[in-house]
C-alpha cells in the first residue's frame, strides 16, 4: 500500500507541524479540517502542499470518504471529552470502515498508562479512548512525549523565571521530567506514521531534566540564582487538585482550567519515561534543554 497520511486537526499547532514534516519527507498528506476552520491556516496548509479535506465531523460518510486510500491516520485533535473521545471515536470507526491499517491517536502527553484515574482529567479522557482503540481491528501506536517544552517559558511553578524559583515535591528534586518540543514531536510522529512496524507505545523526549539540574542551568543561562522550593508531598498535591476541581465546576467546560494545569504538573512528578525510543529514526536533531529555558 502506498503511503498517504491523513492528519486530523491539521490546522492546530501540532497538526500543522506534522503535515510540514511529512511534506519534507516527500509523503502525500491529506489534512482533515472541520468546516469553519481559520482560512489563513487552511491557506498555509495548501501552500505546504497538503491536500485539504473539509468535512462535517458528525457525518460518517464524509469521514469514511476522507479515509479512503489512507495508509495511516494521525490524530492531532485537541479539545474536551466530546473531541478526545467523541470525535476521535468517529474518526476511528471511519478509518476501520475504510480499511486504514494504522492509527496514531492524539495521545501526545505524559505516559498515562500507569496513572490512576482521577489524577488528570484530560488524561482520563485519553484512557477512555484507549479502551476503544485497543478493541478496534486496527494497528495503533501512541506517542508519549512528556510535556511540551514550551511550557518552560510560561512561569509555571516548576520553573518560574519571574520569581526565580523552581519547585519539586516529596524528595523528587532529582526526578527527571520528560520534555519534547512540538517540532521534535512532529518530526518523530511523521516518521512513525511511515513505519509499519511500530509497537503499541513509543516514548520520546527532547531532553529529561530534574529540578536540581534546572538550578544549575538557570544560573548558567540566566545569570541569576534560583531558589529550589519543596512544595510538599505528592499525596497532598493530589488531594489539593481534587479539592480545587470540586470547588470550581465551571472548569469542566474549559480545556485548561487552573486545576487542570496543576494536574499536569502533578503528572510530571508522578510518571516519567524509563526508556526512550529517540533513536528509532534517523534525521531528528533533538532540541537540548539549553535552547528551551
Q: What is the 3D shape?
A: globular
Tally of separate helices: 9
Relative helix content: 25-40%
Low-pLDDT ranges:
none
List the strand order in the largest sheet.
3-2-1-4-5-6
Strand content: 15-25%
CATH topology of the largest domain: Rossmann fold
Structural class: alpha/beta
Mean pLDDT: 96
Structure described in brief:
This protein is 38% helix and 16% strand.
Model description:
The protein has a six-stranded parallel beta sheet, with helices on both faces. The chain has a three-stranded mixed beta sheet with strand order 8-10-12. Strands 7-11 form a two-stranded parallel ribbon. The protein is globular. Helix 3 packs across helix 4 (81-97). The chain is built from nine helices and 13 strands. The protein has two domains: 5-145 and 180-204 and 273-285, 3-Layer(aba) Sandwich (Rossmann fold), CATH 3.40.50; 149-176 and 208-270, no CATH class. The termini are far apart. Helix 5 links the parallel strand 5 and strand 6. The chain has 293 residues and is α/β, with parallel strands linked by helices.
Amino acid at each position: 500500500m502506498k503511503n498517504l497520511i491523513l492528519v486530523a486537526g491539521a490546522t492546530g499547532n501540532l497538526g500543522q507541524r506534522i503535515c510540514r514534516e511529512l511534506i519534507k519527507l516527500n509523503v502525500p498528506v491529506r489534512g482533515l479540517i472541520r468546516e469553519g476552520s481559520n482560512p489563513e491556516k487552511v491557506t498555509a496548509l495548501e501552500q505546504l502542499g497538503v491536500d485539504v479535506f473539509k468535512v462535517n465531523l458528525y457525518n460518517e460518510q464524509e469521514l469514511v470518504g476522507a479515509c479512503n486510500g489512507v495508509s495511516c491516520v494521525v490524530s492531532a485533535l485537541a479539545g474536551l471529552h466530546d473531541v478526545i473521545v467523541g470525535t476521535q471515536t468517529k474518526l476511528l470507526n471511519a478509518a476501520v470502515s475504510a480499511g486504514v491499517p494504522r492509527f496514531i491517536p492524539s495521545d501526545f502527553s505524559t505516559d498515562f498508562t500507569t496513572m490512576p484515574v482521577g489524577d488528570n482529567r484530560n488524561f482520563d479522557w485519553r484512557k477512555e479512548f484507549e479502551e476503544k482503540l485497543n478493541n478496534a481491528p486496527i494497528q495503533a501506536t501512541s506517542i508519549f512525549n512528556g510535556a511540551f517544552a514550551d511550557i518552560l517559558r510560561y512561569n509555571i511553578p516548576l520553573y518560574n523565571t519571574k520569581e526565580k524559583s523552581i519547585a519539586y515535591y516529596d524528595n523528587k528534586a532529582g526526578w527527571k521530567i520528560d520534555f519534547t518540543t512540538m517540532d521534535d514531536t512532529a518530526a518523530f510522529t511523521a516518521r512513525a506514521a511511515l513505519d509499519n512496524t511500530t509497537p503499541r507505545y513509543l516514548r520520546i523526549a527532547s531532553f529529561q531534566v530534574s529540578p536540581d539540574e534546572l538550578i544549575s542551568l538557570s544560573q548558567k543561562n540566566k545569570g541569576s540564582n534560583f531558589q529550589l522550593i519543596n512544595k510538599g508531598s505528592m499525596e497532598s498535591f493530589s488531594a489539593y487538585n481534587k479539592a480545587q476541581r470540586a470547588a470550581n465546576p465551571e472548569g469542566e467546560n474549559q480545556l485548561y482550567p487552573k486545576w487542570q494545569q496543576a494536574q499536569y504538573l502533578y503528572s510530571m512528578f508522578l510518571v516519567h519515561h524509563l526508556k526512550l525510543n529517540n533513536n528509532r529514526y534517523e534525521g531528528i536533531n533533538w532540541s537540548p534543554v539549553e535552547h528551551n529555558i
